[in-house]
Write a structure and sequence with these properties.
CinA_KH, Alpha-Beta Plaits, about 425 residues, Molybdenum Cofactor Biosythetic Enzyme, Chain A, single chain, CinA_C, 17 strands, Maf protein, six-stranded mixed sheet, elongated
């Protein structure tokens, strides 16, 4: 079966200027994959007619489906419709169905439609009007020279709903697509190159219709298996078999699959043991606690935390000995152990974790350069500490430390079980 290839184009100076984050292309890529359409390229272009025409021409040469988002508002800087008219050598004409929809939209809100609002109903003659039930900017469907073009509003809420309920059913009628199935193995604590070396023989033996991708991100690597074929059930079975084959090689690094996050895996382990967690953070400044509590229901396993940025707080709230600080310093194995033990006892938790280090960009010494960080995990049975040697970048160090201390917590909980 011939693969159906898509290209996504986002339009707007605000994207290129970095004034808004483009979340549309990520969402569209995931939704297209679900219906067997493979996205081969994503482009962003400003509000310039010639630039939009160039990227449309390039996309047409590569893709069976071109999806455009943005530039459909009623103001002068929104030029997508006029540019599409130029590209397709056609003109704008007021669409009666679109005009009736826009008029009703404003009347239902107790407002009178103005001429600038009515212009939302001006559409290229060669397009099929696709109603936008969540706004006034219409969707447009073009079928020209064996290529489908879909123009959607840039507002994510409107785009997603229009795509989900209007466009995807049309695409499924238009194209006969293969089935694409993904399976993701989530690992932590092993670098991408070491992981690749460990599973090299298994990867080389993968069948041709199953591809592997490495997706590293802050101390974690996702292994994404993608199977392409005609039978979704068979593909899922084959992917599961490949997972079972590789797990013995990397099992100690695997914390979950598909949509699992390290925080949710830790939450599940804590809940299974009916244990409560407490955190003591110095260099991470509360980031670890925020990662734990961003999920609903975290009060069932998280009792609280102490941001012990100063040595005074370490001593008074966590019970770190003054002599420990004077002899070994705040960034030391001895101090971080006492922090983890202290927060566990002080807050009445079953397990405590702690971070203390030099996140940067300043504060380093020849003995303890920026990126020197200690983490610890303490239960009633034992306290374990680890030294991290990270880089000079503050934000990266904070995020990596969070990952590593949560992984230390995960390993400790598994050993306790």
């Amino acid at each position: 079966m011939k693969p159906i290839l898509a290209e996504v184009i986002t339009i707007g100076d605000e994207i290129l200027f970095g004034q808004i984050t483009d979340t549309n292309t990520q969402w569209l890529g995931a939704e297209l994959t679900k219906i067997g359409i493979r996205t081969i390229r994503k482009s962003s272009v400003g509000d310039k007619k010639e630039a939009i025409l160039d990227v449309l021409k390039e996309a047409t040469e590569r893709a069976d489906l071109v999806i455009i988002t943005g530039g459909l508002g009623p103001t002068k800087d929104d030029i997508t419709k006029a540019t599409l008219c130029t590209y397709f050598n056609t003109t704008l004409e007021r669409n009666p169905e679109a005009l009736a929809f826009v008029t009703k939209f404003f009347e239902s809100r107790g407002r009178q439609i103005t001429e600038i609002n009515a212009k939302q109903a001006d559409l290229p003659l060669n397009c099929t009007y696709v109603p936008n039930d969540w706004g006034t900017a219409p969707g447009m469907w073009f079928n020209e020279n064996d290529t489908v073009y879909v123009s959607l509003p840039g507002v994510p809420f409107e785009m997603k709903n229009l795509m989900q309920y209007r466009i995807i059913p049309l695409l499924q009628k238009q194209f006969e697509t293969p089935t694409i199935v993904h399976k993701i193995i989530r690992t932590v604590g092993i670098g991408e190159s070491f992981l690749a070396e460990t599973i090299s023989d298994w990867e080389d033996a993968l069948p041709g219709h199953i591809k592997l991708a490495y997706l590293p991100h802050f101390g974690q690597v996702r292994l994404r298996l993608t199977g392409t074929g005609d039978d979704a059930t068979l593909l899922k079975k084959q992917l599961d078999e490949q997972v079972e084959a590789v797990l013995p090689l990397i099992n100690s690094y695997v914390f979950g699959f598909d949509d699992d996050e390290l925080e949710t895996t830790v939450a599940r382990l804590l809940s299974d043991k009916t244990w409560m967690l407490a955190t003591a953070e110095s260099c991470t400044g509360g980031y670890v606690a925020s990662q734990i509590t961003k999920y609903a229901g975290s009060s069932a396993y998280f009792v609280g935390g102490v941001v012990s940025y100063s040595n005074t707080v370490k001593v008074n709230q966590l019970g770190v000995k003054p002599e420990t600080l004077s002899q070994f310093g705040a960034v030391s194995e001895q101090t971080v152990r006492e922090m983890a033990e202290g927060v566990r006892k002080t807050l009445g938790a079953n397990v405590g974790i702690a971070t203390s280090g030099i996140a940067g960009p300043d504060g380093g010494t020849p003995e303890k350069p920026v990126g020197t960080i200690w983490i610890a995990c303490s239960t009633e049975k034992k306290t374990v500490a680890r030294l991290l040697k990270l880089g000079p970048y503050r934000e990266q160090n904070i995020q990596l430390t969070s990952v590593y201390v949560l992984n230390l917590l995960r390993q400790t909980l598994l050993e306790e079980n």
